[in-house]
Amino acid sequence: MTAWAEHGPLPGVVGRAAEHEQLAGLLDGAAPITLTGPAGVGKSLLARAVLEERTAGRPDTVVRITCWEGLAADGLLGALLDAAGLAPRSTPEELATHCDAHRAIVLLDDCDPLVDACAALARRLLRAAPALRIVATARRPLGLPSERVIALAPLPVTVGEGDAGPAVELLASHTGPAAPELLVTICRALEGCPLAIGLAARQLDRMTLPQLASRLKTEGSLHYSGPSRTVRHTSLHAAHAAGYALCSPLDRRIWARLSVLPGDFDPWLAGCVCASSDVPSAAVDGALERLCTASVLERVRDAKTAPDTGAALPPRYRLPRGAREFGRARLCGTGDEAGALRRFRQACAALAAEAQITWQGTGQQLAVRLVEDERHHFDAALTRPPLDAEDALGALEIAVSLWFQWAACGYRHEGRAHLDHLLLLAPEDTALRARALWLAGYLAAQENAPDAAETLLARAWTAAVMHADADGLARIAHAHAVLALYREDTATAVACLEEAAQHASRDPWFGPGPAHSWALLAIALAPLDAARAKAAARRAWETRHADSDFWLHSTVLYAHALIERAHGDPTAALRACRKALVAKKLIGDPLFIAGARTLLAGLRHGPGTGTSHRPPGTTEPRWWRRGTAGPHRQPFFSRLRTGP
What we know:
Blueprint: H1 17-26, E1 33-36, H2 43-55, E2 61-66, H3 76-84, H4 92-101, E3 104-109, H5 115-128, E4 133-137, E5 148-151, E6 158-159, E7 163-164, H6 166-175, H7 180-189, H8 194-201, H9 209-219, H10 236-246, H11 249-258, H12 267-274, H13 284-293, E8 298-301, E9 304-305, E10 312-313, E11 316-318, H14 321-334, H15 337-360, H16 364-373, H17 375-383, H18 389-401, H19 403-407, H20 412-425, H21 431-446, H22 450-466, H23 470-486, H24 490-501, H25 513-525, H26 530-542, H27 550-566, H28 570-587, H29 590-603
Parallel strand pairs: 1-4, 1-5, 2-3, 3-4
Antiparallel strand pairs: 6-7, 8-11, 9-10
């Protein structure tokens, strides 16, 4: 009753030791077992490997049918009877009794097109013979009583401390000796999918490994093909098309629209992108769960409560690259791509606005976390070509709303690049463009690029005057103060900061604001006038917009450290500097982290002596300089934060 001959010899199963052991152990019980997982993950291969091992030299046998090969629901029982060698008119109860008596394991392979019929037949068989062993492979569970589900995920690319994982081992079995870094790059592009790895490896008869890696980066693996026992496994496109055909029309539309999301997402963002006249917003959550159950989507986080804030966190999903590329092809084919992309950028603009308000209001750490969670989406919204002028303004709005990410959290170079590009695409004179000009000039000032900063700030000044934007004029003065501090022109810096600090901001949600001008004024005055510097630091804290402003709090602490160091209390300076460094690290502000570390290193030489320990003839170290000597020191404004 075991018949594998038509499928040829069994290839090796790589990287499935844990699942192999789990399936073999469950076969000793009576509960039905279903292997689930996305297209091309190797469900049938693993089931076949374990069952062949199980039946070798034992009385156990396998009765197997596959449901993709033209089998209809009403032919399911007949196919099983034929595989078991029973008469065509036998009943399910007779089949169950026969299999139980002959220690047969029933394998319902590739159940997806007939999943409901397979589940119904399995229930009848189990009612007749509760101890009957049934194994199924499908992209989703059958929903049987006491069903044990083994979910197969793509193979890990790396393990432990970055060592090559099973995916690399599988690729190496096709390629032979090769540079491990190159194999890892290819497997990451294929996201560890065994079918994709096998199909990509077949291309090596017409291209080299480096060429394959380059093409995967730009083209993906969707259309690579090769011979296979089943049509749906001849390419990754065919594998996803088979699953796509089983989805409802609503789920297909949602799958296609989700393809514009490059990273993991929550139901809110999915609803923004997918909902339209033909997709009710209330239907999106259910579709996400169905697509997740069908192994189209990955659930990367269950709904939970944040341990630090107690806030309810929604679940997050991810569309793997192969499914995303297939969905994008379908989206382009239906003519719906432009609408989905527009809704995507509008949703990102709303997220960026929320992050901006959170930064100035309820918590800067929450704002940083929100931006990090949606980093892939913000990157895509800022870099994908706009559809038209209105869409370009939407992208510019995102860049402006994320001002704190660029100016305070270490992404100044990245922010300037986005703004320079988007300002060219949105030339119309608007209030939003005026803010973008100021932000680009402010970032250039922070990076000590005076020529670019002066030009941008001059254009921002003209725009602010035209739009009667008093807040903008104050922010421009603040940026000019930064340039003056780089020139070591303290008098000009103090004058600009006093002008900016005296302004009563009408928009507390955007830019550093008066409180930060007071704090920077305290830093500028620290080596010169302790009383005025302390008064400026006090005003900075009194005019704060929110108690949770770590950026401001740490800057004020740093000002106090400079004041105490310059005027005789290194112990107090050391204490304030340590607190400032801790607060700065909460948001990752590189500007003052480097300055605080430099100051801290100097204070540690002798904080208890009452002197600052500067050699004769030297001056107080400037807060905007690194601690190293030399004429070519780089400002730490220009730090580009690293990360994936």
